[in-house]
Amino acid sequence: MSNVELTYHENIVPYDRNELLNRLNHALRKPRYEHVVRVEQMAIKLAKLNDVDVEKASIGGLVHDYAKQRPAQDFIDAIKKYHLDKTLLDYGNAIWHGYVGWIFVKKELGIQDIDVLNAVKHHTIGAKHMTKLEQIVYMADYIEMGRQFPNVDKARKVTFDNLQNGVAYQTKHTLDYLIQNNKQVFPKMIDTYNAWVPKSNIK
Ligand SMILES: [Fe+2]
Ligand SMILES: [Fe+2]
């Protein structure tokens, strides 16, 4: 699983990849840890296809779910401490682990790179403007090789053919899923939808 041979040179994390893996291993239970390693592998593949920095893709893929298994109170405290939008309190871990979780990635993992932090922040709900790295982490999380949902192969093909179309595809289908299942929609997801889906030609 973690057989990616990659030596970090860019000082985005102030330690090596093995130490980052160690930290994730402590923060996450086994299935989630294995997921982030698969996301890393997919992110590296997408980075190579799209001319994006492989080290950033590796780190973004690995850390995107760093905060996924923290207690709710950690997020509630952070929302208050850092004076984040109070309406965040109406949501839960599904939104918080990215949209608030990037703060823990910054403080605890020592990552300052804004592109990596935004990739964590936006990996679940997307954003109106996303850099290629953000798009890659958003998509790698959706199509990593452990994912099994109807049309996952189509989602992979669309994404390998064109990263932006992949973003549109995921955004459309996730929103559709939330609505079909009477789930909460975080308002910023609508911004993501409006920015990416109407201009695309995906089905
Ligand atoms: Fe996530
Ligand atoms: Fe994830």
Compute the CA-based radius of gyration.
Answer: 16 Å
Low-confidence stretches: none
Rough shape?
globular
- Quickly give the structural class: mainly alpha
Number of helices: 11
Distance between the termini: 33 Å
N to C succession of SSEs:
HHHHHHHHHHH
**How much of the sequence is in beta strands?**
under 5%
Bound molecules: fe (ii) ion
Please, what is the average pLDDT?
Answer: 96
How would you portray this structure in words?
- This protein is mainly α and 203 residues long.
- The protein contains eleven helices and no strands.
- It starts with 16 loop residues before the first helix and ends in a 7-residue tail after the last helix.
- The relative contact order is 0.12.
- It binds fe (ii) ion (2 copies).
Give a nutshell description of this structure.
Pfam families: HD (PF01966). By secondary structure, this protein is mostly helical.
Show the helix and strand layout.
Layout lengths: L16 H11 L2 H21 L3 H10 L8 H10 L11 H7 L2 H8 L4 H8 L10 H12 L8 H10 L1 H18 L6 H10 L7
Helix pairs in contact: 2-3, 2-8, 3-7, 3-8, 6-7, 7-8, 8-10, 9-10, 10-11
The structure holds fe (ii) ion (2 copies).
List keywords for this structure.
0% strand, single chain, binds fe (ii) ion, metal-binding, 203 residues, nucleotide-binding, bis(5'-nucleosyl)-tetraphosphatase (symmetrical) activity, YqeK, mainly alpha, 62% helix, 11 helices, iron
